[in-house]
Amino acid sequence: MRGEPAIYNKFTRTQMALHAVDLVVELPAHASLSAGSYFW
């Protein structure tokens, strides 16, 4: 869901996600806003 605004805060989203998955990882803002060459 990249680029979509979040309605709930990250803690609420984590609690909702934990009911369906085993691990929730947050990508740091500086990594998610970097240029594509950053990931190579």
Automatic annotation (TrEMBL):
Record has RNA-binding as a keyword: yes
One MF annotation (Gene Ontology) recorded for this entry: tRNA binding
Lineage: Bacteria, Bacillati, Bacillota, Bacilli, Bacillales
Coiled coil: none
GO BP annotations, alphabetical order: tRNA processing
Full protein name: Cytosolic protein
Keywords of this entry: Ligase, RNA-binding, tRNA processing, tRNA-binding
InterPro entries to which the protein is assigned, alphabetical: Rossmann-like_a/b/a_fold, tRNA(Met)_cyd_acetate_ligase
